[in-house]
Amino acid sequence: MNSLKxxxxxxxxxxxxxxxxxxxxxxxSAKVQAKKERVRMKMYYSKNDAGERLISIGxxxxxxxxxxxxxxxxxxxxxxxxxxxxxxxxxETDSLGLINLYLANDYKFPMDENGISIIKASYGxxxxxxxxxxxxxxxxxxFDFTFEIDDSVKYLIIKANKIDREENKTPINExxxxxxxxxxxxxxxIDIVETNEDGIGKLEIPDDLPGDAEGNLTFVAKIEDHDEFxxxxxxxxxxxxxxxxxxxxxxxxxxxxxxxxIWMIAAVFITLLGAWYHFFLSxxxxxxxxxxx
Length: 293
What we know:
Layout: H1 2-35, E1 39-47, E2 53-61, E3 68-69, E4 74-81, E5 84-92, E6 98-103, E7 116-123, E8 132-150, E9 153-163, E10 169-171, E11 176-182, E12 187-194, E13 200-205, E14 217-226, E15 230-238, H2 262-292
Parallel strand pairs: 1-15
Antiparallel strand pairs: 1-2, 2-3, 2-6, 4-5, 4-7, 7-8, 8-9, 9-10, 9-13, 11-12, 11-14, 14-15
């Protein structure tokens, strides 16, 4: 009985010693971590019109005006699906602390049965900077365009579908999609449509939108920084614009052009002609006065 009490007592002492040591190690680790500079990470996902995907990561440290990018630092990119973790890439930041990873449109992230991919970027830190990580939940989405005319009113109909691992499509409800028209250097916004339970959004298109020389308009559908789909852009063209000729024609003769107006040339010519006429007339008069003297 005494030996059992002694064993229990020794085990209790051992647990107390181990607990104290762990607390001491944790306190030291916390102090060391507190001395390191704080690091911030931003992570974005986007999909363009061609289906190419982009994962953008920004790694910065400091505060206020002293904020700076961490260059030549390694970031590990992992993907988690169904409790399995896969290393996608080990990347290195550029001189501004940025990483841009482009993915071909036929590349598929590891995903669960619901079509969700969890992408995690991890920075291990060093003697100066703290460690940090960030996760994104990504699902694949596609837009389908349909153009209809009802009672002389033009409608753009867009359908949004979520694609799972088996390539099955599920309509996305209550999704806000920005609709615009591609201009020369930017997109002219028209309106924002919200999809219904069938994943369909409908927008009336004005009749006075200027297009190209053949009246073609390029409609752009976009969602930005969505929690599940990221930034996705899709475009389609249709002949619903007002034809506009973009041919560069020579400017008419004006005061600000390289070629002066005809009336100005004639006025200058007449003025110079009159000046030279009076000059030679004066010379001839002087010669006649000299001879008569």
